[in-house]
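FW: tagging you since you asked about this chain on Friday. Here's the raw sequence from the shared folder, copied in full. Didn't touch anything.
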Amino acid sequence: MADRKGMVTLKGNPMTLTGKEVKVGEAAPDCTLVANDLSEVKLSSFKGKRTILLTMPSLDTGICDMETKRFNQEAAKLGPDVKILAVSMDLPFTQKRWCGAAGVQNVQTLSDHRNSEVGTNFGVLIKELKLLARSIFVIDSKGKIQYTQLVKEVATEPDYNAVIEAVKKAS
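HL: got it, structure written out here
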């Protein structure tokens, strides 16, 4: 498994990302995640829709909370052929509770806690913390990656406008 040191920082401290870095034009790696009801969900099951895949450390942190709520608002504007997935290492119970408390209905939260497949297959697993880095992948309806954004400082928000533009361009 490849390690990439210093790709991201957390409050200024360099972190190591584990896994293969994915690039624009590649097929999105398939991964099995856990839904809020404990069922397994394959990333490939979203083929046919444009997908925004958000990875983040934890929904219970301020920045992750703001980011997910912002994408929940954006989802209504993007239409039904765009699916937004927020993936963290949080347990499904935590994600379900957070969604209910936050009123988030347009973003599907999924957990990578069992096998860290999104973390390692997309190269965003923070080795030192076993949490996911803040990153965003736009996947087109055919399952190809059209855009990537790795947020250098994990404790900052992503560039929302760039993501929205990328998903509008994806087919």
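FW: The radius of gyration is 14 Å.
HL: agreed, and The mean pLDDT is 95.
FW: great, closing this out.
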